[in-house]
Amino acid sequence: QVRLVESGGGFVQAGDSLRLSCAASGRSISTWNMEWYRQNPAGEREIVAGISGSGGTKHYADSVKGRFTVSRDDAKNTVYLQMNNVKPEDTAIYFCRADGQIRGEFWGQGTQVTVSS
C-alpha cells in the first residue's frame, strides 16, 4: 500500500510561482510513473503532467507547457510540480497519482491552488 500526501497549495496571484510536493510512504515509488492531475471548480479533472519511473520522460498538458515542470527526488520518495507564471485558470485541486501497474494505482487527497487575477 502506498500513501500519497500533496502539499504546497495556497492562494496566490497571477504571475506568481508555487511548488507542489507529493510525498509517498509505504513503499518506494522510484520505479513508478507518477502523474499530476487537477480538478477545476466545475469538477472537471485533467492530467497536468507526468514523469516516468526513471525520470527520463516527462509530458505536459498543452495548457501548462513552458510554465510547469514536473520532477522527482527518489531519495525523498517525492514528486514535485513547479508552477511558474500561474494564471487564474490554474485554480483547481491538484492531485498526484502513482501508477503501480500490477500493484494498482494510488491517489493523494489533493491540495488546493487558487490564483487571483
What descriptive keywords fit this protein?
54% strand, mainly beta, seven-stranded mixed sheet
Overview of the structural elements:
- With 117 residues, this protein is mainly β.
- The protein is 0% helix and 54% strand.
- It contains no helices and eleven strands.
- It has strands spanning 3-7, 10-13, 18-25, 33-39, 45-51, 58-60, 68-73, 78-83, 92-99, 105-107, 111-116.
- Strands 2, 4, 5, 6, 9, 10 and 11 form a seven-stranded mixed sheet that branches. Strands 1-3-8-7 form a four-stranded antiparallel sheet, with no helix packed on it.
- A hairpin with a 6-residue loop joins strand 5 (45-51) and strand 6 (58-60).
- The protein is globular.
- The N and C termini lie far apart (40 Å).
- The mean pLDDT is 96.
Global shape: globular
Continuous helix count: 0
Mean pLDDT: 96
Output the helix-strand order.
EEEEEEEEEEE
Q: What portion of residues is helical?
A: under 10%
Distance separating the two termini: 40 Å
Q: Structural class of the helices, strands and pairings?
A: mainly beta
How much of the sequence lies in strands comes to over 45%
Low-confidence stretches: none
The main sheet comes to: 7 strands, mixed
How many beta-strand segments? 11
Gyration radius (Cα, Å) is 13 Å
